[in-house]
Amino acid sequence: MTTVKISPDAYREVFYALSKDASFSLPEKRIHTGDDLKFFKSTTAFARIQFLLAYISDCVSELEIPRSEEDLSNGIEGIITILKKLDSLIDEVAPITGPRRFGNLAYKTWYAKVEETIDPLISQLLEKKNVVQSAKIELAAYLMASLGSLQRLDFGTGHELSFLAFFGGCLFLGLLDSDTGASIEGKEILWIFTHYFQIIRKVVKKYTLEPAGSHGVWGLDDHFHLPYIIGSAQLKGVEERHESQDQRKHAARSTTKRPQDMSIYGMPRPSAVMNTQIVEDFKYRNMYFGAIAFIYDVKRGPFFEHSPVLYDISGVQSWAKVHSGLLKMYSAEVLGKFPVVQHFGFGGVLYPWSPLELPAKPLLANQ
Fold first, then answer.
1. Contact status, residue 155 vs residue 212, Cβ threshold 8 Å
2. Looking at residue 11, what is its pLDDT?
3. Do 51 and 171 touch, CB atoms closer than 8 A?
């Protein structure tokens, strides 16, 4: 498996070339029919989403989630400030007591507080990086959409797709570059996405948000898909490096339960999701196991019953195959599912509803 490595700087040249005659505008829903869904796959917006998945996967390869903010680029201070503010607002808004059938209505109070807060924070981020303030209309819309549905009191893959879009917008506009101009690295990407998912899990639990759609993430997880893609990308890099050193034959040697779940180079195998101790050990180091830990936290009963698709994936022999399969599943069951992407908004610059004018191949990784 080969991956085309593309720096944010190189992609940004393409981004501005495609966007030079456009102006920022409030993202609007464009996918209303099956034909719209088909057209979506030919758009600039779709190509940029695909690029982000490949680029993030490449950047986080072999890395663990940082233990602290030490040694992280100052370029992500703005987005981390925003995420910390969202987190602190959760602590300010207590759930409403009393009987209820669906999500707790206190979520609407929290959502409103966030809406009041993020505009000045995004303005500060844009000003510091000398980016036009008109970009705020698109960035703010994607960030708010990434927090769940105010109307349905639910959260699902369509919402985390909006955070991917928000992150990508910040990346394309240079809002995540350090003061020296250096591009964001994998450890910063892990820090950002880890904090986002920590916030969403806190919101889901505190305000009992429903899974979006009758099947959540169409069978993978009630709410999430991206942490599994990013987490498996972290691990497949370790796996591929060791396999290139002809250690694959050693990794299969095991006689007891724990070695069956761990490779000889200290990396958990896909089967390790069934070992709660290993999940506990790795949940702060790897996003895949962080997502699995949340499932154990909120669900009871046999794993194969409440998470059958993840249970099936645990039988896959390599993280490279897990990652490849999850990307294909994301394309089919998230980007290719009308009930999910019908809510995605298309603006004038970041994710426009327009055909991709340049060849897509140089922008995407070869999976």
1. yes
2. 62
3. no
Report the helix count and the strand count for the chain, using DSSP H and E: 17, 4
- Between CA 113 and CA 167 the distance in angstroms is 21
State the Cα–Cα distance between residues 68 and 126, nearest whole angstrom. Answer: 25
Between 62-76, 93-107, 320-334, the lowest mean confidence (pLDDT) is in 93-107
Q: Assess contact for 267 and 250: CB atoms under 8 A.
A: no
Half-sphere exposure of 196 (CA within 13 A, CB side): 25
- Residue appearing with tokens 């409103």: 112
- Distance from C-alpha of 50 to C-alpha of 46, rounded to nearest angstrom: 6
Q: What is the pLDDT of residue 137?
A: 97
Cα dist from 101 to 98, 105, 210, 266, 295, whole Å? 10, 11, 10, 45, 22
Planar angle of CA 69, 71, 73, nearest 5 degrees: 85
What sign has the CA pseudo-torsion 114, 145, 91, 96?
A: positive
Q: Which residue has 């996967």 as its token pair?
A: 57
For 28-75, the pLDDT digits (tens) are: 999 999 999 999 999 999 999 999 999 999 999 999 999 999 889 999
The whole-number average pLDDT for the span 163-192 is 93
Q: The domain at 226-243+256-330 falls in which architecture?
A: Up-down Bundle (1.20)
| Per-residue burial over 211-241, b = 16 or more CB atoms within 10 Å of its CB, e = otherwise | bbbeebbbebbbbbbbbbbbbbbbbbbbbbe
Contacts of 59 (CB under 8 A, 6+ apart): 184, 185, 186, 189
pLDDT tens digits along 127-148: 999 999 999 999 999 999 999 9
**How confident is the prediction for the chain on average, in pLDDT?**
86
What residue has token string 């003061």? 179
What is the amino acid identity at position 208?
Answer: T
Residue among 284, 291, 288 nearest 269 (CA): 288
Extract the tokens encoding 118. 């993020």
pLDDT recorded at residue 240: 65
Q: Write down the pTM of the prediction.
A: 0.89
Handedness of CA 152, 154, 157, 159 (dihedral sign): positive
For residue 243, the model assigns a pLDDT of 57
Domain boundaries defined on the chain: 8-212+339-352, 226-243+256-330
316 closest CA partner among 202, 235, 223: 235
